[in-house]
Amino acid sequence: MMDQIIHLSIQSGGLIPLMGLLLLITLAVIVERLVFYRRALRSGHAMEHDLQLVDYQNVEKLEQLALHYEGSLQRSIISSALASRGEDAETIERHIDEAIMWQMPKIDKHVWVLDSSVTLAPLMGLLGTIIGMVHAFDILGSGGVGGAAAQMVTGGIAEALIATGAGLLIAIIAVAFLNYFNKRGRLALHQMEQLKVMVINRLHGGGSAHHGVPVREAHAGNVTALRAGRRA
Q1: Crossing angle of helices 59-68/147-204, nearest 10°?
Q2: In angstroms, how far is CA 192 from the centroid of its own chain?
Q3: C-alpha angle 5/9/10, rounded to 5°?
Q4: Which residue from 24, 99, 117, 199 has the least number of CB within 10 angstroms?
Q5: Rounded to 5 degrees, what angle do the CA atoms 46, 48, 52 make?
Q6: 102 vs 109: CA distance, rounded Å
Q7: Rounded mean pLDDT of the chain?
Q8: 118 and 178 Cβ atoms separated by less than 8 Å
Q9: Burial letters for 184-222: b for 16+ Cβ neighbours within 10 Å, e otherwise?
Q10: The predicted structure's pLDDT at residue 144
Q11: 134: Cβ–Cβ under 8 A, 6 or more apart, which residues?
Q12: The whole model's pTM is what?
C-alpha cells in the first residue's frame, strides 16, 4: 500500500502528498466550523427565548443574562447595550452594531480555507495528471511502440488520472460545506440582528401588548385579551 502511494506520488510530481495535506486541513476546518456554529446558534436561540421573558426596562434581568451567557458570541450585544443604556435608542443601536462587527471575524474564521480548496484542489489534480502523462509518454518515446511500452503508457495515464479524481473529490467536499457554512453565517448574523432589536426594545420599550409574555405565545394568542387581563 505504501509502495503504491509512493509510486503515485512520483507519478504526480509529488502533488499527491500535498493534496492529502490539503484534504486534512479542509476536514479540520470543517469539524471546527461545525462545532462553532452548533454552539453559537444554540446559545443564540436560547438567548432569544430568555429575552422574550425579560420585562421592559428590567436592567437587572439583562445583567443576569449577560452573566449567564458569558463567553458566547451574542453576549457582547447585551453587554454593549447595558454599557450605553443611558443613551437614546439610536446611540445604543450604533454601539451594538459596533459590537457585532467585532464578532464578524469569528463567524468567517477559516472559511477562506474551504474557498481556496474548491479552486486549488482541482488545479493541483490537473497538474499532477499532466506530469504523470508526461512521464508516461516519455516511456513510450524511449521504449518504442511495442506491446509492453504501450501497456506501461496506458497504466501510467490511468495512475495519473487518480490525481484529477482526488482533486475533484476534495473540491466537492469543500464546496458542499462552504455553502453550508455560508448559510450558517448568514443565520448567525440574522440572529444577532434580531437580538439587537430585542435588547433595545427591552431598554427603551414602553411596554407592548405582550409585556412579560414570550413573543411567540403572545402572537399565537389574543393580544387584546392580554391587555384586558392586565387592566383587570
Answers
A1: 160
A2: 15
A3: 120
A4: 24
A5: 120
A6: 12
A7: 80
A8: yes
A9: bbeebeebbebbbebbbbbbbeeeeebeebeeeebeeee
A10: 53
A11: none
A12: 0.75
Q: What letter would DSSP give residue 58?
A: -
Quickly tell me which residue has 469569528 as its cell.
Answer: 106
Q: Note the pLDDT tens digit of each residue in 177-202.
A: 999 999 999 999 999 999 999 999 88
Q: Which residue has the cell 513510450?
A: 140
Per-residue model confidence as pLDDT tens digits over 114-151: 999 999 999 988 888 888 777 767 666 565 555 555 55
Query: How many angstroms separate the CA atoms of 38 and 43, rounded?
Result: 9
Q: Which amino acid is at 106?
A: K
Q: Hey, what's the cell of 141?
A: 518515446
In the numeric block, the cell 484529477 is attached to: 164
**Ramachandran class of 146: left when φ > 0, alpha when ψ lies in -120 to 50, beta otherwise:** beta
pLDDT of residue 173: 96
- The label of the residue with cell 502528498 reads 17
DSSP 3-state assignment of 213? Answer: coil
